[in-house]
TrEMBL record:
It comes from the Eukaryota. This is Uncharacterized protein.
Length: 192
């Protein structure tokens, strides 16, 4: 298996580990607020699971980047489409597009408006996984968050899932740009 596919297997396993309860717990009010968005399905993955490394490795070996599909044998190709995304993740495939230019956004103001602070932005680009876990990952389930405070936790939870589960990178940082689409928490379910 080539280096890129090995990295893919490791990234899949590492990103799934980010949902374990000891790493990031989801507050019940956040779960309720995200019901119907598709993110509630991904948050169910938080229960501990065992990874079948040989199976993940076998699937990764069949992935053809150049053909944009999985190739089994000489003549069998499996293409993943939007319908597959819906069935596998539960995320909606119909709705508003997530399109924009990060260079046109004041990231400091965006973080202040959406998360209540700009301390998430460091000298290196992106928001730190460690910062997300420290600030939002261990909320007391007994505390009743409401209003703007609850919305901040909802935004942080969705940002965490996007950056470390749906679109993970090999760094421990993620782009704050997605906060642009999380300003109005009630509109989250409108996006594809």
């Amino acid at each position: 298996m080539d280096h890129h596919k090995k990295r893919f297997v490791v990234d899949v396993i590492d990103s799934a580990e980010n949902l374990l309860p000891e790493k990031f717990s989801f507050h019940p009010n956040v779960l309720a607020k995200l019901y119907g968005t598709g993110f509630e399905n991904l948050m169910k993955l938080r229960r501990p699971s065992k990874h079948n490394l040989p199976l993940i490795t076998a699937v990764a070996e069949t992935c053809s980047i150049s053909q944009r599909c999985f190739v089994f044998g000489e003549d069998t190709k499996l293409f993943m489409g939007l319908g597959d995304v819906l069935r596998i993740t539960g995320l909606p495939i119909d709705g508003l597009s997530i399109i924009g230019n990060e260079k046109e956004v004041d990231l400091k103001k965006l973080c202040e408006d959406c998360l209540g602070t700009d301390e998430c932005l460091s000298t290196r680009s992106g928001i730190s996984l460690t910062w997300m876990r420290t600030k939002f990952g261990k909320l007391n389930a007994e505390v009743a968050f409401e209003g703007e405070e609850l919305d901040r936790y909802v935004r942080a939870t969705v940002l965490y899932i996007i950056g470390f589960i749906i679109l993970p990178t090999n760094s421990s940082r993620m782009a704050p740009f997605y906060l642009t689409f999380l300003k109005n928490v009630d509109d989250i379910k409108s996006y594809a």
